[in-house]
């Protein structure tokens, strides 16, 4: 029996078989979780349905977190299938492309800043709020994905760094709010991984190479490794852990001079 065998978990953020959310879903499936998936927009529907079936998912629902209505409909539909929910995986981030290149002060705009906060941080609170009635009193867990740019100034990450700082604070406030009803909230801070969200990021290849050369384990992290840590955090093995940020980055964040 796997360590998630009594858990029903909603997985957001799968866009391809390289998505971090897909690594988490596979690890959770292996550990016996019952899964459901969401997809952002009709273009991704077929692909997510395909991947979901590989994890014996019970259903797949549309969810664009920029829409209150879609958040509401998603949890209403989920409540038709399941009488409770033990986990939510939030693996969603977005900032307009022009915000993620060049000097921070030169590129930041009010609109870009607001969009990054809305989609990449507020959405975690929105999902926690919508899922609350189904999760209450069940030893549930909420998991999100952060990055080192939340706590260090990483070139070009810019407005996403501020959004990830906000996301990590969100983890702590949500943990304080939902802890009394038995729901834990944590984040994995992953090292850089080549996913769709990394495609087209200037110099991503050289970032991966730099990490490989300097980080303690001398290699980049995989979605399977992030998946295993995420599955652990959502399981009762992590019953004493909430409000925390777990680095799964082959040790990169401990370095001063690499
Ligand atoms: P990905 O492109 O596979 O996943 C990003 C997901 O965000 C996609 O599934 C996309 O559909 C979803 N998304 C964006 N806007 C949305 C919206 N409005 N509504 C619903 N979904 C929306 O890339 P990924 O790297 O797997 O990213 C997942 C998470 O991991 C993100 O939070 C990202 O910041 C974080 N992360 C990524 C890395 C990396 O190097 N790839 C490192 C650390 C953390
Ligand atoms: O969180 C991320 C990236 C999230 C992301 C990616 C995109 C690309 C396409 C958010 N918004 C967009 N908008 C788009 O239009 N990561 C942790 C990966 C990442 O992105 C970087 C990084 C790393 C690492 C950007 C600059 C520097 C480092």
Structure in words:
- There is one protein chain.
- The protein has 258 residues and is α/β, with parallel strands linked by helices.
- The chain has eight helices and seven strands; from the N terminus they run βαβαβαβααβαβααβ.
- It has helices at 20-30, 42-54, 68-81, 104-107, 110-135, 158-178, 204-214, 223-233; strands at 8-11, 34-39, 60-62, 87-90, 141-146, 184-190, 245-248.
- The chain has a seven-stranded parallel sheet with strand order 3-2-1-4-5-6-7, sandwiched between helices.
- α1 (20-30) packs across α8, α3 (68-81) runs parallel beside α5 (110-135) and α5 runs parallel beside α6 (158-178).
- The protein is globular, with a radius of gyration of 17 Å.
- The relative contact order is 0.16.
- Bound molecules: nicotinamide-adenine-dinucleotide and ligand 0WE.
- Ligand 0WE is lined by residues 93-95, 97, 100, 147, 154, 156-157, 160, 192, 197-198, 201.
């Amino acid at each position: 029996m796997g360590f998630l065998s009594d858990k029903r978990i909603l997985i957001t953020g799968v866009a391809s078989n390289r998505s971090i959310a897909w690594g988490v879903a596979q690890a959770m499936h292996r550990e016996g979780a019952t899964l459901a998936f969401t997809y952002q927009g009709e273009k991704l529907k077929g692909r997510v349905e395909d991947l979901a079936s590989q994890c014996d998912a019970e259903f797949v629902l549309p969810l664009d977190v920029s829409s209150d209505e879609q958040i509401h409909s998603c949890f209403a539909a989920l409540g038709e299938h399941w009488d409770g929910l033990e986990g939510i995986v939030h693996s969603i981030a977005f900032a307009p492309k022009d915000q993620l290149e060049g000097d921070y002060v030169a590129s930041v705009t009010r609109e870009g800043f607001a969009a990054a906060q809305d989609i990449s941080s507020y959405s975690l609170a929105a999902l926690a709020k919508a899922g609350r009635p189904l999760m209450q009193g069940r030893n549930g867990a909420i998991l999100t994905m952060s990055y080192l740019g939340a706590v260090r100034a990483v070139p070009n990450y810019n407005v996403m760094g501020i959004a990830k700082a906000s996301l990590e604070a969100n983890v702590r406030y949500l943990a304080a709010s939902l802890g009394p009803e038995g729901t834990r909230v944590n984040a994995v801070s992953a090292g850089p991984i080549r996913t769709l969200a990394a495609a087209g990021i200037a110099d991503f290849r050289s970032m991966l190479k730099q990490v490989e050369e300097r980080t303690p384990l001398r290699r980049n992290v995989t979605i399977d490794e992030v998946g295993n840590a995420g599955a652990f955090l959502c399981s009762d093995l992590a019953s004493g852990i909430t409000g925390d940020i777990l680095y799964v980055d082959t040790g990169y964040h401990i370095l001063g001079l690499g």
